[in-house]
Each structure stands twice: as C-alpha cells, then as structure tokens.
Write a structure and sequence with these properties.
The complex is a heterodimer.
Chain A (H helix, E strand, L loop, with lengths): L2 E6 L8 H4 L8 E2 L2 E2 H11 L4 E7 L3 H10 L5 E7 L7 H7 L7 E6 L2 E3 L3 H10 L4 E6 L22 E6 L5 E6 H6 L4 E5 H6 L2 E5 L3 E8 L1 H9 L6 H12 L20 H6 L11 H10 L20 E6 L4 E3 L3 H18 L13 E2 L4 E2 L4 E2 L4 E3 L2 E2 L4 E2 L4 E3 L2 E2 L4 E2 L4 E3 L2 E2 L4 E2 L4 E3 L2 E2 L2 E2 L4 E3 L2 E2 L2 H6 L1
Parallel strand pairs in A: 1-4, 1-6, 4-5, 8-14, 16-19, 17-20, 18-21, 19-22, 20-23, 21-24, 22-25, 23-26, 24-27, 25-28, 26-29, 27-30, 28-31, 29-32
Antiparallel strand pairs in A: 2-3, 6-13, 7-15, 8-13, 9-10, 9-12
Helix pairs in contact in A: 4-8
Chain B lengths: L15 E5 L26 H12 L3 E6 L3 H10 L10 E6 L8 H11 L6 E5 L2 E3 L3 H14 L3 E9 L13 E6 L4 E7 L5 E5 H6 L2 E5 L2 E9 L3 H7 L6 H10 L1 H4 L2 E6 L5 E3 L3 H12 L20 E3 L3 E3 L4 E2 L4 E2 L3 E3 L4 E2 L4 E3 L2 E2 L4 E2 L4 E7 L4 E2 L4 E7 L4 E2 L4 E2 L3 E3 L4 E2 L4 E2 L4 E3 L8 H4 L4 H6 L14 E2 L8 H8 L6 H30 L6 H19 L4 H15 L3 H20 L5 H14 L1 H7 L3 H17 L1 H16 L5 H9 L6 H28 L1
Parallel strand pairs in B: 1-2, 1-4, 2-3, 6-12, 15-18, 16-19, 17-20, 18-21, 19-22, 20-23, 21-23, 22-24, 23-25, 24-26, 25-27, 25-28, 26-29, 27-30, 28-31
Antiparallel strand pairs in B: 4-11, 5-13, 6-11, 7-8, 7-10, 14-15, 31-32
Helix pairs in contact in B: 3-6, 14-15, 14-16, 15-18, 16-17, 16-19, 17-20, 19-20, 19-21, 19-22, 20-22, 21-22
The chains are: A alpha/beta, B alpha/beta.
Chain lengths: 456, 691
C-alpha cells in the first residue's frame, strides 16, 4: 500500500448553517446522494480499497451505511470525534495518526471533482514532495448568481498562489483574507527566494481543492506540533515557508536538549522540523550523484538543494468545486446534474414514471410522486416526495419526504427534509425547513421552524 | 530597406531611432573626463559604432544622435565616419546640448520634444548598448498592440538572464511584475539594495495572473509611442527611465497609459552601464555572443578588421608578437601593437599602437590605444586608458582603472580598486572638466593627492553622492569573485530568514503566557517598542507612561494586563536588544540599568497592593518561561524592594499565595526562598525594634 486516504468529514459547514442544523454537512445531498459519497466514489475510482473517515460520533451509523446503500466497495475505517467538538483538519489528522502508516491523501468531504488523481500522485512520487496540493484552474461558468436565503455579501475566499514557472514548486501561499485582515496592502517576498525562483507566477484565481498528498514525516510533524489546527490555514503555509530554511544537522539535539532551555519550555516548544525528515543524507547523496536537474539558470542542484519541498498540481481542465458555502452548494447541484453522465457513466438515473413535465436537467428520486400537471426544471427532488398539481419548480433543491401541494411556484429554493408547502404559495430564493401555509409569498427568506431548531 | 525612388517618405513611415549618446553617470570616471562614454573603445571599436551598427542592421532609416558631454568630439567622430556619408542607408542627425541644460535622460527627451522632431513611433536606445536585436518586428508588435490597447506608450526590451549571470549588472537589478497573457508591465522595482520585495495587493486582485520576474535584465532599448515625449515634458520630475515607468504605472488609472515588455529570445543585447559590465560585454563580443557584432566582421572604416584564430584570438594587421609570447584565449590585439618576449596575455583586449615589454602578465585587462607597458609588469582585472605608461615592474591590483596619460614609476604597486588620473583634480572649475554629472561634483571637491613622487598620477575620488554607498560598493566588486560573494550573501539571507522565524518562535515561547487575545498581544509589542526606544533614547519616564497609557486605550486592555505586560516587557528588553539570552549574572548586569531607568514608570503603575501582586505574578510567569532568568529573580526582587517599588507585604503575600503554574514551585519559589526568609527576619527585627 503506497498511499492511504483520509476524508475529513467533521466540518461544521459554518458558511451554510441554515442547511447544516438538520443534517451534517457531509450528508447533505448533492443530486440525491450524500456529499461524502462523491469523495468515496472518487477514491474508489482512484483505486483505494480502504479509507479513513473522520466524523462526529453521532453520525457514525449513517456514514457507515453509505457504501452498501449506494453500491460502493470501498471499506470505511471510521474515526470518531466526540459529539459537538470542533476539530480542525490538522487536529483530525492528529487523531488518526496511529492508523497512518504511509504517505497519505487528505481530502475534505465537500469536494466534487473529476480530475484524475493519479496525476497528483505521480507528481508527488516523482519529486519526493513533502506536500502536494491540488489546484484547479478552470472554474465552471456560474449558471445563476441568486443564492437562497437572506442576501448576504458573500466573498469567495481566494488565495495568492506563487508557483515557480519552471517547476511545479509552490513558492508561496497566502490567503487573501489573511492579508486583508492584517491590513497589509502589500505582499512581500524575500529577495533570496526570488534568487532561487526568479520566475514566479502568482495566481489569484486558482481554486484550492483542499486535496493534499502528505508525506509520512509531515504527518508525524503535525502530530507532534500541537499548535497546528488547520492544514490549509497553518500547516501548508508553514511548510511552504520552511522550504527555504537551511538544515542544521545537530544529531544529538533530540536526546540532549540545550542546557539553558528549561524543562518546562521543552514541553511547549516543538522539535525542529528538520529532525523529522527521513533519509535526508541518502537523498542528498543521490541528488549529488545524479546529472538530472529540475531547473536551469543557476548552478544549484536539483530542487535548489531543498529537502522540504511543496508542489502544486494545477489542473488545467476537469471539473472541481467545493461545497463550502451555500452558493457553491447550489452551484454544485446544478453542475453535477449537467455532468452526471460524463462523470459517472453506467450510473443512469431513471426518473419515476409520470406524465409531469420534467426537464432534462433534473434528478428525481425513484419513490417520489409527481402529479400530472406539474412542471420541473433544473431541479433535484429527493426520495418520497409528493408534488401536487400545477406546481412549478425551477432551479430548486428538494430533499427527502417533502410535500408540495397544488398550484405552488418555487424558484431557486432549498426545501429541507420533511418540509411541506401548502396550496398556492409563491416562494423565491428561500430555504424552507417546516410547513409553509397557503398563499404565502416570500423572497430571500429562511423559513425554519424555531421550535424544531431548539429540539435539535 | 532603402527604397528606390526618391519620393519623400512621410515621417510616419520612416523607422526612426533616438540614440542618447550620454549615460548621465560617472561610472567610468576619470576616463570620461576627457572623452565621451560613447567613444570609449570596446574591443577596439568605439561603443557608438556598435549601437549605430545594430540600428542599421535592424533597418532603421533615420537616427537622431543626442549628445551632451563632449558633444563636439562625437560630432567630429561621426563626421569623419562612414555613418555620415551620403551612401549610408541610415541618415544621421546630430543634436547637441550643453551639459548644463541637460542632466538626465528626461531632460534630453524634453529637449527633443521641444524641437518637435518626431511625430511617429520611435526606437529609443542608449549609445552604450551592444545588441543584435532585430527591432522592426518588435516595432510592428508594438503597433499591433496599439490596435487593442490605445494607451500603449512603450514596449521595453528585456533580456532573460538568471541571477548570478555575468551580464546582470549589480547596479540595475530589477523585478518586474507582468501580466503574462498580454505582456503588460504592472510593477517595476529596482531591487539592488532591497532584502524584501513588496508588491501591492491590488495588483494581484485586479489581474488574476501575475508573473514576478527577477530574471530579466534591462537592455535600455525601448519602442516608444510619440506620446512619450510630451509625457516627459509634462512631468519635470521624470529623470530616468525608472521614474517614467513608475510615473506611468501610478497614473495608470487616470491617464490609462500602459507599458509592455518584450523578452528577447535568442538575440543579444546588453548595456554597458559600469566597468564590470564593460568587462562582461567585451567578453561577450569576443566570444561572439553578439554576432554579427564581432571583431572580425568589423565594418568600420576607421579601424581595420581583426583576423580570428583559434581560441577566440583576434589580431589586427601589424601586430608583432615576440618569441615565446602567448595569447592564450579570448584576446584581441589592435593594429601595430608589439608584445614582448615571454609575455602572457589571456582574456584581455589590447588597443592599437601599444608597446608591451617582456615578461608581462596580462589577465582580464582592457588596455586601450598607445599604452606603453614596460618589462615585468603584472596586470590583472584592470582598465588602462589611452596613452598610459607603466614602467618596469608595475603591479596593478584588481579592479583598477588607470586614466589616460597616467605615468607610473617603476616598481609601483597599485592597491585593488584604485582609480588614477593624470591631472590633479581641479576644485574650482571641475564643473567643466569633470564628466557628466558635474552638478554634484562641484559641491564635493575632489581630494587632491598625488599618488607617488615619480609618477604622474592622482587618485580619483568619486564625489560623494547621497545614495552612492551601495552603488560604489557594487562598482568595486569588479574583479572580485562575485559568485562567492553573492553566495555568501545569500546564505546570510537564508540564515536571517531562519533567525527571523526562530525569533518569532522564541518570542512566542519565551514570553509564554501572553494572553491569546490579539489586543493584548499587540499592546505588548507596542509597549516593548516604546520601552526599547525609551531606553535607547533615554526618554523621560512620564512621557513613556503617557505612551503606554495611550496604547492601553488603543488596545483596550485591563489594568491588570497592563501591569503584567509592562513588567514582562521590561524583563525581556535585554534579550530583545542583544538578541542573546545568556544565563548567569550577565542577565542581571544587563537588566539592572534598564530597571533603574524605568523606575519612574514602575512607580507609576505599581501603586497599590493589587498592582504589585500583578507584577510579581508577571515576574514569576516570565521566570517560568525563561529559565535563565530564574537566577536573577532574587536580585530583581531585592532591587525593586530596595527602591520601594514593591512593598514587603506584597512580596510576602505573593509568596504565600500558591503559584499559577505548579512548576514554578520548584524553580522560582525555591530561588527566592532565602530572600523571603531574609525579608521575614528583617520584618521581625523591625517589628521587634518598634516594640
């Protein structure tokens, strides 16, 4: 086994709380399948037979049932977090550190992508990369800008990714949010870095897929270094910066702490990153004997003689989107419907037999009942739904067991499990979680039962 | 190129070039005191010849040569050369201006604008550029771009050359931010003296894709739209090309002007900006990188062609080589020069009519015309100008420039990086005699110092410019092993980077229990800064208190935090200032004057029992995280007690309270034990006394 895979599925979905109070983020449906199914499917397609899933313990049973329910052969090794505790991705990785024996692929459960993963692994393998990250260049054209729920100013999180033009090296990585929060108007780069990498391409429109291939020693480092909580926000920028340090080889450092470091501070300080590196000397020897070089223009050895190396795989084509916000979640639903047949061949979706007008870009659960005179366009309808006469549904996501009575018009709405809508309502861009009474007209609202919120 | 038919071409159709025959710098002084830079020989040919040749080869039809310093000499030279003959396919017009009226590139372009000579696109080039670039395609490209971008004012030409390459001029290092999709320049920075490069965030937000290029070299060739000239006229502060680019980029949104870059592929261009670059370019010409601008294809009619033999050895007619003399490799020798017996020459250029004696060693030297070098001289990495005489056994150190007409007595040894001239510098009217940047020079009189008794040589001292330190340093790197230098510098850089990070860490770890609260953290940093400054500049305590109080309000921290953080900041001051955390008594030695200085500040904050307890708590926390401090904690307590900053009651109360951190019990409490017992005893005594 060369690589292990970990799915981080304990995210709270803090940018889509209106949806996640009823179902955890990883189980929110995308085209009638739980979000995590897409990650599992992608790993299965990439050849993984087993995957570690980090999840909150109350959802264990539900997640464990997914492979059998949807016909996946992948084996789940579920690691549970205590209920209601927030763990960052690095914390989660620390939690499963004993199960990690090799280099590891870490993905987040909200990723839907059809980029062939072997490319990322190839890059990682070829360059003995410490961390390889996947970025996607092509952002699918956004089909609709309207987002259900109250209008909020949502800013897409962007990163500034600095890539070497000659090699796929990741030279720097800063998130725009970090820079603006610190009120810095400038991005500064050391001249010594530019000497090593005289051609840097700074890309501001790449999508970080939050998919990382991480070397085993880096996992150990993260496990040891408790100050890290997030992979993306902390570990990755840290490693990218550490690429340029010189390795000081003090072999005894591990055993003999310096005399003037007190016992107390030793417990709080962490071991130097270089002491985690494995096989450095051997690798340096190989590099010095080899005639191969990854760059030209100077007399330095391959990889600029760096032992810590971060690489980025930038996918030029292929679909890649993360459901990390409400708007992305809606977009993802629309996009996946469009691409279903190319992304998942041999998995035809058969709509239930009915005389209703159903557009081609719709997915409807088999056990749902559609009346004859309703029309459905660009929408997803879950299982066990009941849709009345003269109902018009456009651009909606309707989860399971929803009842919609006659003569209702829905546009751009999300209807949560077990919600129902009575006669002649007209809802636009709403999120519905309970019963909406007759003749209701709303735009951009969250219609969720307050009592039920408390129950949960 | 030359169209048949004598129809008068419209000016727009003629390919125009402006050649600025002055570099507005004193990099070549004292050589340029008597001769314009454009006429200095580069591999036995005046530099302006190369520039005109490359314009001609590109198909330029009309060139304005703009001369400032020694304009008469350039005019004279051109008059006698082939360039001004009627058969020349390129017509040349010489414009001259007195050095008083024109002191920069900006001035000269303003002058050209005033004369309204140019109405179409033109090529702007410096006369000290050696290039074999075909400029017409780039001009076409420039015109093509105008179809999509009306605001294009300039396409500047860059050559790729990685850090460490000899064709990079250390003085002109630059970083460009460009838009790779259309080649627009978004940001331009001179990086010579910088350690960190900063780019505005806006730029990255606006353009999704930005390339940062540190591997480019400015060739000093640009294709300009006619609007460039009025732009210079409108902005009197534009002096150099860099000013212009920065100005255009800053006013981009208002004027909507844009600058593009062009990267040379496979052709050669270099700018002879200083002596090390002169060295590099000469080698490039000898090693045929600038083909067809090579010594054996010399089309000049003033100097004959060289013949090429193996190992890039070029000889003009009439060269006499005595027996056992060696021209090893990359050597050019001018006509009628004589080289004596057993003389060894490598990687050098020797001008016309030179006489070189026996057993001379010449390595990496540039010897111009009519130089007389006697036996047993040793020259390594040096430039020797016209008519110099080196008597027997002269040794010239690395990086020297020997001015025209200098005579060196037998056996003289010239130290490295010396510049000599034949005439004593004139203080009164060096305005006229010195070179191009006289303005500055007149303010800083040269130091008159004859070099040695029998020689005709005076040390040239560069007038001190405001920002010359670094520049002259770089200039003096000539002949030194630059590679090694830059490498070590780099290592320093890296070390520094390392340290920086470590420092960050240390700070985080050392101070330990800093509240997680960002406010308190920034407050602490601010206090630390104020205190450091206060200590270094000996600012009065009251003012510091004011400063700290204003920080307190700015960051909204509680009084308890203020007390604790101020104390912590004071304690960490010695290690912050010296960056060394040494153990033992030295700590106390360093700390004592600091505490002494800040006594008024402490008195201000530690007024009641609670605040004293806070400060003691801070002391303890600091001790927990800085083991070396533990040893001096007793002394600090004693000192503060002695100065009545801390009251006895507070100390005793603190001692009886359990410590926040259990590990403090073993270390700190133990160390202070003797002091506490002493205190208690003293108290008993005093109470006994009072009884």
């Amino acid at each position: 086994m060369e690589y292990q895979a970990v799915i981080m599925a304990a995210g709270r979905g803090s940018r889509m709380t209106d949806l996640t109070h009823a179902r955890p983020k990883c189980l929110l449906p995308i085209c009638n399948r739980p979000m995590i199914w897409f990650s599992l499917k992608m790993l299965e397609n990439a050849g993984f037979e087993e995957v570690i899933v980090v999840i909150h313990e109350q959802f264990r049973a539900e997640v464990a049932a997914i492979p059998s329910k949807y016909g996946l052969n992948i084996k789940l090794d579920i690691a549970c977090l205590p209920k209601n505790e927030d763990f960052g991705t690095a914390d989660s990785l620390r939690l499963v550190k004993d199960r990690i024996k090799t280099d590891v692929l870490v993905i987040s459960c909200d990723l839907v992508c059809d980029i062939p993963l072997h490319n990322v692994f190839d890059l990682h393998r070829t360059h003995q990369s410490s961390v390889t990250a996947l970025f996607s260049q092509s952002s699918p054209e956004v089909m609709s800008t309207a987002v259900p729920g109250p209008k909020t100013k949502f800013k897409q999180e962007r990163d500034l990714v600095g890539l070497d033009l000659q090699t796929p090296r990741l030279v720097f990585l800063v998130s725009e949010a970090d820079l603006t929060s610190e009120n810095e108007e400038e991005l500064s780069i050391r001249k010594s870095v530019m000497k090593h990498f005289p051609q840097i391409s700074v890309q501001g429109n790449l999508l970080d897929a939050h998919l990382y291939v991480i070397k085993k020693w880096v996992c150990d480092y993260i496990a040891e270094n408790r100050s890290f909580t997030m992979l993306k926000g902390e570990v990755l920028p840290h490693l990218v910066r550490k690429q340029f340090i010189k390795i000081q080889r003090k072999k005894n450092e591990k055993e003999l702490p310096n005399a003037d470091v007190s016992v107390v501070s030793l417990n709080t300080t962490n071991r130097d990153i270089c002491s985690f590196l494995v096989d450095v000397e051997e690798e340096e020897k190989i590099r010095s004997y080899s005639v191969w070089n990854d760059h030209r223009g100077d007399l330095r050895g391959p990889y600029q003689d760096h032992n810590i190396r971060c690489f980025a795989y930038v996918a030029k084509e292929g679909f890649c989107l993360r459901a990390n916000s409400l708007s992305n979640y809606c977009e993802l639903n629309r996009q996946v419907i469009k691409r279903w047949n190319t992304m998942f061949p041999n998995m035809e979706i058969t709509p239930p037999v009915s005389k209703a007008q159903v557009g081609t870009d719709c997915i409807i659960g088999e056990t749902s009942q559609l009346s004859d005179k309703c029309s459905i366009k660009h929408s997803v309808i879950g299982q066990g739904c009941n849709i009345g006469e003269k109902v018009r549904i456009t651009n909606c996501i309707i989860m399971d067991n929803v009842t919609i009575m006659k003569e209702t018009t829905l546009q751009g709405c999300i209807l949560m499990d077990n919600s129902s809508i009575e006669n002649s309502c007209d809802l636009k861009d709403c999120i519905v979680g309970h019963t909406v009474h007759s003749n209701c007209k709303s735009t951009n609202e969250v219609l969720v039962d307050a009592d039920r919120l408390l129950e949960i | 190129m030359s169209k048949s038919g004598s129809e008068v071409l419209k000016q727009e159709d003629v390919v125009l070039a402006v050649l600025i025959a002055d570099s507005f710098s004193i990099r070549f002084a004292p050589v340029t005191d008597s001769k314009p830079k454009a006429l200095l020989p580069l591999v036995n040919r005046p530099m302006i010849d190369y520039a005109l040749e490359s314009l001609l080869l590109s198909g330029v039809q009309k060139t304005f040569v703009y001369c400032v310093a020694h304009a008469d000499q350039i005019r004279q030279y051109l008059k006698e050369s082939k360039w001004m003959r009627s058969v020349s396919p390129m017509s040349i017009e010489v414009i001259s201006q007195s050095p008083d009226d024109c002191r920069s590139l900006g001035d000269s372009l303003r002058d050209i604008d005033g004369k309204s000579l140019i109405r179409g696109d033109f090529i702007l080039m410096s006369a000290d550029v050696i290039s074999n670039v075909q400029l017409i395609p780039i001009l076409e490209e420039h015109r093509e771009k105008r179809k999509t971008d009306k605001g294009i004012v300039m396409t500047h030409i860059f050559k790729k050359s990685f850090p460490g390459h000899r064709s990079r001029s250390a003085e002109e290092e630059l970083v460009l931010a460009i838009n790779p999709t259309n080649g627009r320049i978004l940001n331009y920075q001179q990086t010579t003296n910088l350690k960190k490069l900063s780019f505005p965030l806006e730029m990255f937000k606006e353009h999704g894709l930005v390339d940062l290029r540190y591997d480019l070299v400015d060739t000093h060739i640009s294709i300009c739209s006619p609007v460039v000239l009025p732009l210079f006229s409108d902005n009197f502060d534009y002096q150099t090309w860099g000013d212009f680019v920065r100005g255009i980029l800053i006013n981009e949104e208002i004027l909507n002007n844009t600058i593009y870059y062009h990267q040379l592929e496979g052709s050669y261009a270099a700018h002879v900006s200083n002596v090390p670059m002169y060295d590099a370019v000469s080698k490039d010409v000898i090693q045929r990188w600038a083909f067809p601008l090579v010594p054996d294809l010399n089309r000049s009619d003033t100097t004959p062609r060289h013949t090429l033999s193996r190992h890039n050895v070029y000889k003009q007619p009439g060269v006499t080589l005595a027996k056992e003399s060696v021209l090893e490799r990359d050597v050019a020798v001018g006509e009628n020069s004589k080289i004596g017996e057993r003389t060894f020459v490598t990687q050098s250029v020797i001008g016309s009519r030179c006489t070189i004696g026996n057993d001379v060693y010449i390595n990496n030297a540039y010897i111009w015309d009519n130089v007389n070098i006697k036996n047993n001289c040793r020259i390594e990495v040096a430039l020797i100008a016209d008519g110099a005489v080196l008597n027997e056994g002269v040794e010239i150190g690395r990086g020297c420039v020997i001015g025209p007409g200098v005579v060196l007595a037998a056996g003289t040894k010239i130290p490295d990086n010396t510049r000599l001239m034949a005439h004593p510098p004139k203080c009164d009217n060096d305005f006229e005699t010195s070179d191009e940047e006289e303005g500055n020079a007149s303010l800083n009189p040269y130091v008159v110092k004859p070099f040695s008794a029998d020689s005709v040589a005076y040390v040239y001292q560069r007038p001190v410019e405001e920002d010359s330190d670094a520049e002259s340093l770089i200039d003096e790197l000539w002949g030194l092993d630059i590679d090694e230098d830059s490498e070590s510098e780099e290592d320093e850089d890296e070390d520094e980077a390392d340290n920086d990070e470590e420092e960050e860490h240390e700070e985080e770890v050392d101070v330990g229990d800093l509240p997680e609260d960002m406010n308190a953290r920034s407050f602490y940093n601010e206090v630390l800064e104020s205190l450091q400054r206060g200590y270094e500049e000996k600012i009065k305590g009251d003012n510091l208190v004011l400063e700290i109080n204003s920080s307190k309000y700015a960051y909204n921290v509680t009084m308890k935090e203020v007390n604790m953080l101020v104390i912590k900041a004071m304690l960490s001051l010695p290690s912050v200032m010296t960056k060394a955390a040494t153990g033992t008594n030295e700590d106390w030695v360093a700390l004592r004057p600091i505490l002494q200085h800040f006594l008024p500040v402490m008195r201000n904050y530690l007024k009641n029992n609670q605040s004293m307890l806070d400060s003691l708590e801070a002391l303890e926390e600091f001790g927990v995280h800085n083991s070396h401090f533990v040893k001096s904690i007793c002394k600090v307590l004693h000192f503060l007690y002695g100065e009545d900053v801390l009251s006895e009651d507070a100390i005793l109360e603190w001692y009886t309270n359990p410590p926040n951190d259990p590990s403090a019990l073993k270390t700190i409490r133990k160390t202070v034990e003797p002091f506490i017992t002493w205190l208690e005893e003293a108290e008993e005594e005093s109470s006994e006394e009072s009884d």
